[in-house]
Write a structure and sequence with these properties.
The protein is α+β, with helices and mostly antiparallel strands. It has two domains: about 10-105 and about 305-355 and about 365-410, DNA primase, PRIM domain (Alpha-Beta Complex), CATH 3.90.920.10; about 110-155 and about 195-295, DNA primase, PRIM domain. It is about 45% helix and about 10% strand. It has 16 helices and ten strands. Strands 1, 2, 3, 4 and 10 form a five-stranded antiparallel sheet that branches. The chain has a three-stranded antiparallel sheet with strand order 5-7-6. It has a two-stranded antiparallel ribbon with strand order 8-9. Helix 4 (about 135-150) runs antiparallel to helix 7 and helix 7 (about 210-230) packs across helix 11 (about 285-295). It starts with 10 loop residues before the first helix and ends with a helix. Pfam families: DNA_primase_S. It is an enzyme of class 2 (transferase). One of its GO terms (biological process) is DNA replication, synthesis of primer. Its EC number is 2.7.7.-.
């Protein structure tokens, strides 16, 4: 990943400026407090900070947005992780009675890492990515987003680029946050198709009839497979790579001919995949191959645990310097991880002079300190490449706010009904 504008050695100098003037604390607090519908929701949330020299500090918690801001500006974390909402303040977990400190709620989360595709991508390996293999992330988002919305009925999904080689999904619906470990495991297993370690050749096994969810997933994979796998990844470019495909369960009558004419296999792929959906013993070999090469590979342990930590949106990746930013699904096909700004870039953009800066400073001086600080931060990030990603986050929060308002109205209605019943009862009592 080209990061020529970023020098990790400069991170200690850049982070204080980032947390002081650019980090979107207002939106961040608004997200994690969920409209204040549940009491102490933000206060009982765990934050984890990774400091310089890999010093790891867990069970951080904060009462207000201002308290969170001050602590992050003081500690200057290299990485921020978000954990569960607990029964007690995480910062006081050592003071509560043993066994009573429990993780109660957390967003349903998914972590998709490009390294898990190393056995099927030829362009890169390990932490490296390129525009060719990034298609795998696009496929993963399209498949999982549809399933979570249509199959499970969730609405508030925040997709976030990790800052280096993968994506995260935060399912923020009230129902999702309250899911038990067993329910989270069931969702994760439902969405998992690629199974088995390095020794397992056949990682996708389809049965007859194919489940509707898998058919939906196949419709996504098929849109990208020819260009991604056959052309860009060129998985059939040599006898070695063809042998890898042939090691999968292909019917013998095709296996023999492909071994003999492996150098013509590109011409045959379309024929093979359309040959009456070749099926033998319940096996759809062409579909299994496509899914094995392109289907999302989930770290199910991240999704199953309520108390599992996940990297926070707008955290900085220390090695690439890139900000972990929300992804606009309306522009998913054109999202380019290499265009995501680095902390170096946005700090440089921030320092560029503006003609109207002096006038705005005069306005700022007339406001109280907290309002001035918030006004300046909004003004500051809008001057940088971070602005469009904060705007995506704002739209996500606006959609959630509408559901919070509905929940508050519902609770208000229930309270009003209860009070009316009480008044009716009292009127009969004293009549």
């Amino acid at each position: 990943m080209p990061t020529s504008d970023y020098d990790p050695a400069c991170l200690p100098d850049l982070l204080p400026l980032y947390y002081r003037r650019l980090f979107p604390f207002s939106q961040y607090y608004r997200w994690l407090s969920y409209g204040g519908v549940s009491k102490n929701y933000f206060q009982n949330r765990e934050f984890s900070f990774t400091l310089k020299d890999d010093i790891y500090v867990r069970y951080q918690s904060f009462t207000t947005q201002n308290e969170l801001e001050k602590e992050m500006q003081k500690m200057v974390p290299y990485k921020v992780d978000i954990g569960a909402v607990y029964s007690h303040r995480p910062s006081q977990h050592n003071a509560v009675k043993s066994g009573t400190f429990q993780a109660l709620e957390k967003e349903l989360v998914f972590d998709i890492d490009m390294t898990d595709y190393d056995d099927v991508r030829r362009c890169c390996s390990a932490a490296d990515i390129c525009s060719k293999c990034w298609t795998l992330m696009i496929i993963a988002i399209r498949i999982l987003d549809r399933a979570l919305r249509e199959d499970f009925g969730f609405h508030h999904l925040l997709w976030v680029y990790s800052g280096r080689r993968g994506v995260h999904c935060w399912v923020c619906d009230d129902a999702a946050r309250k899911l038990s470990v067993a329910a989270r495991s069931a969702v994760a297993e439902y969405l998992s198709l690629v199974k088995g370690g390095e020794e397992t050749l056949r990682k996708v096994v389809l049965s007859d009839p194919i489940h509707p969810f898998i058919n939906h997933s196949l419709s996504v994979v098929e849109r990208y497979f020819q260009q991604y796998a056959i052309v860009e990844q060129d998985i059939l470019c040599s006898k070695e790579s063809v042998d890898k495909v042939l090691s999968l369960p292909i019917p013998v009558k095709f296996h023999n001919s492909l071994c003999q004419f492996w150098y013509h296999i590109k011409k045959y792929w379309k024929y093979l995949s359309c040959s009456h959906n070749i099926k033998k013993g319940g096996q759809y070999f062409d579909k299994e191959i496509m899914l094995q090469y392109c289907y999302p590979r989930l770290d199910v342990n991240v999704s199953k645990g309520v108390n599992h930590l996940l990297k926070s949106p707008f955290s900085v990746h220390p090695k690439t310097g890139r900000i972990s930013v929300p992804i606009d699904l309306k522009e998913l096909n054109t999202f380019d991880p290499f265009e995501v700004p680095t902390i170096s870039l946005i700090c440089e953009e921030l320092e560029r002079p503006r003609a109207d800066e002096a006038e705005e400073d005069d306005v700022k001086d007339k406001e109280n300190e907290q309002e001035a600080g918030e006004r300046r931060r909004i003004r500051d990030y809008k001057r940088t490449s971070l602005a469009k990603y904060v705007k995506v986050f704002d739209r996500f929060l606006e959609a959630m706010a509408r559901s919070w308002k509905g929940e508050m109205l519902k609770k208000s209605g229930e309270l009003e009904t209860s009070f009316s019943v009480f008044l009716t009862f009292m009127s009969f009592t004293y009549t």
